[in-house]
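User: Hey, quick favor. My workstation is busy. Could you predict this chain's structure for me?
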Amino acid sequence: MRVGTKSVLFGAHCLLIHPFFVARGWSMLYGFPWIPSLWFAFGLHDIGYVGLNDMDGLEGEDHVLLGGRIMGWLFGERWADFTVRHSRYWARKHGVPVSKLCYADKLAFAMTPAWLYLPMARATGELAEYMQKSRDRQAGGSCFTDAERAQIESENPAVWLEGLQQYTRRWVEEHQQGGVDVWAVPDNAAG
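Assistant: No problem, here it is.
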């Protein structure tokens, strides 16, 4: 079974867990999500990882497309666009702003407790890829604090996660009102 499929079934993007953290993030940022199509977006935005060999590489970058197509079929082009633009890197590559779903999704990651996130990401093989990719990104970016940089460079997954979650919370706080994302390091990574 490929890593993307494992991620959606029982990993960091688990269909039975991750959408509820996204809903919680949305609630914290924008209020309770009363619109039913939002709940579909929470559940479908990462479904495109199914069948992929990587999460943050060239394949993973396009994971947004399947969820976008499904949302478009169900609710129209506006919802397709909303769902596709949840990825910082995909949006930047295509010259469009991220949607509000991006901020809720990032906050979901930052709120997922280590006792839950680390075993899920380790079980699927995602953890090593995420740890390496975050080190590669932070090496090219000046947006990390010295403390976050030290944590992200750690070989200890719990320390690494704490640093990346702290950075992610700061990113959401700084960018949730929209505007240009100058923190995202432009590369071929999904986000």
